[in-house]
Amino acid sequence: MKDFYCAVGPQAARAGYRLEVFTSLASTNDEAMSRIAAGDPGRLWIVAATQTRGRGRMGRVWNSPPGNLYASLLLVDPAPPARLAEIGFVAGVALIDALRVLAGPGPAILLKWPNDALGDGAKLSGLLLEGASLRNGQFACVVGVGVNCQSSPVDAPYPTASLRSLGAASFDRGALFAELSERFAHWLEVWSRGANFSAIRAAWLARAGGLGERAQVTRNGEKLEGIFRGIDAQGRMLLEKAGGAVETIEAGDVAFDPRRA
């Protein structure tokens, strides 16, 4: 049994999105990945009240106490394989829109490249994108979403926040999930299996934090510094270095100038 009410929004339900809710899982992403192996047709949300082995990008532990949102969306053949990484940007836009509805006009809810949500400059959520090849040659992916609703980690190496600590108008994770399911379904349709990433890029830039500010990127142990100039047509970060040369960055950890935070 679940300990909170959770349901997909009406438009998402009409579009065929389904939901299964659990009291506890090792990881919602792991559960969704197991459904790929079992032949699930996709458009399935997995939500858990808690996780015992939650994880973020690069194998990092994602603390998962009760009161926060832990959800994963399984999609089967959502786009040609070359466009699948774009789903992370679709998810980021959808999550920011959902968070802003709950947060109200108070805190500044912005995106940090590639798809973290920041609340007043502190990390509010994280996304984890994973995938697997199917026997029929198609590809399936799982988008994991963790949002600090009631609490946030106190031992993280960067500032963190929760909807509650930000004084959000609402920090009801059931309401947040319903809004997220609606926004995700909408932006996936706009994205159109990768045919319209330009619209996603424009929406992402309109919600981005740190544009025009100094940023530090850690990539394979190397630290790069420069001015964040946005993202290119493939979603890569554009970092203007000293002298004006612009470097494109495909992966890395980003931190903005702490003097501006």
Question: What does this molecule look like?
Answer:
The structure is a single chain. With 261 residues, the chain is an alpha+beta fold. It folds into 2 domains: 10-206, BirA Bifunctional Protein, domain 2 (2-Layer Sandwich); 214-256, SH3 type barrels. Helices cover 23% and strands 31% of the residues. The protein contains 5 helices and 13 strands. It has helices at residues 10-14, 28-37, 87-103, 173-191, 197-206, and strands spanning 18-25, 44-51, 69-76, 109-112, 116-119, 122-123, 125-133, 139-147, 214-219, 222-231, 237-240, 246-249, 253-256. Strands 1-2-3-8-7 form a 5-stranded mixed β-sheet, with helices on both faces. It has a 5-stranded antiparallel β-sheet with strand order 12-11-10-9-13, with no helix packed on it. Strand 1, helix 2 and strand 2 form a beta-alpha-beta unit. Helix 3 crosses helix 4 and helix 3 runs parallel beside helix 5 (197-206). It is globular, with a radius of gyration of 18 Å. The model has no long low-confidence stretch (mean pLDDT 91).
